[in-house]
Amino acid sequence: MKLPIRAAIYARISKDISGQALGVERQLIDARKYAADNGWIVAEEYVDNDASAYRGKKRPEYRRMLEDISAGQRDAVIVYKLDRLTRQPRELEEFADVMAQAKVKDFGVVSGEVRLASSEGIAMARLLGTFAALESDIKSDRLKRKAQEIAEAGRPNGGNLRPFGYEKNQLTMVESEAVAIRELASRYLAGESLGSLTAWLQDNGISSVAGLPWRTTALRQTLTNPRIAGLRAHNGVIVATAVWPAIITPAQHKQLVAAFARKAQSNRRAPRRYLLSGMLRCSKCGNKLYSSARRDTRRYVCMSGPDHGGGCGRLTIVAAPVEEWIAEAVLMRLDSPEIADALAGRAAVDERHSVLVEELQADQAQKLELSGMWARKEISSADWKEARDILDAKLYTIERQLSQITGTNTLDGIAGHGGELRTSWDSLNLTRQAAIVAAVLDFATISPGTGGGRREVDPNRIVPSWRL
């Protein structure tokens, strides 16, 4: 008695826009009919949905089918079209080898038959595979050109998830989310950390567009996305003004990109526990005071040794009282005439900041272009290294200059309102408090103590040097 032929059906669709796998289901229906017409039994159906056979995406079901054929569990294979099986000539050769080694001669193509068991069939399959690969190349180039045209026209691209701040049509602003973005941008530029901003979103019940809690990585992507500034980017380069309304200004976008670049370079990750870290100096040696806890008491200490700048190691002050005194001094100074006079000259600082940001972005783009020239072998490794070193030196200088310019957004809406801020000071998180203090105070020199408890501090020990 002749055993029935056990057929494997393979179906694949490279882009399932609807998410309903309708293209795969149509392939399966026609393949099942093909099996029935030939008297074959469908032993198993292998389906890779939304997986490309041209770009090398992993196709687990395809690999599993090859394993079953090699194990002698399948006597035939059915596909709707040859390009559903593969679009890569080398992968077709692998498939033909697996079929030959397993002595599987029956290979059904619903839209036309190719017999891999014969030399003519292999040649025809190779020819069809070459044309399928060429078709994919042409289609890919056409889609790239279309995407470029859409971007240069300032129009949005597709996507199932809407961008935060905009409706699903990617054009209409969601005002409540736009308000949140503006506050997030302002607070980050004022010195608040991504972690505390993410916590703020969580505390206020503001979810991502996927309905999930925010992560710092997602928040960083949102705040640095040119889209929220009404700019259209393509392949990481801004190519046009967008047709949708901007939530923040292009200048704010540049400031955000520069701020994130500086934070990445400084690589500061530890959460802040001390308000005045880096802002206190020892009157004896001029060295910075370092935060240090002893038992349950937070302190600022002048530390000796090469790892701490060679301090004298002979000065200590309890943290809480000095933090309270300086915070109160800063709040009082926010309402002083000195602050008003200092802020009157901020326009020049703002202009210098914008110029530096533009220089930074231009040099970063040039460095990226330089890497591309080396990859395309247009310049030698020696030329690439020489030019790269020059650009790295320029980038380092610009970063240092930017780091010396106080964020101009820090005191927006605060200067002249120290009394009001005092009532809400304790509700601000530590990074926001530190940013406000650092915008006003350059540093404070601490003198040796003459006694007193942990809960009080002698004001005569503190000599502030004001930035504003």
TrEMBL record:
PROSITE patterns xrefs: RECOMBINASE_DNA_BIND, RECOMBINASES_3
Molecular functions per Gene Ontology: DNA binding; DNA strand exchange activity
Domain Resolvase/invertase-type recombinase catalytic as annotated: residue spans: 6-154
InterPro entries xref list: DNA_bind_recomb_sf, DNA_bind_recombinase_dom, Resolv_N, Resolvase-like_N_sf, SSR_resolvase, Zn_ribbon_recom_dom
Superkingdom as given in the UniProt entry: Bacteria
Domain Recombinase: 163-266
Protein name (Swiss-Prot/TrEMBL): Recombinase family protein
Species the sequence originates in: Lacisediminihabitans profunda
Lineage: Bacteria, Bacillati, Actinomycetota, Actinomycetes, Micrococcales
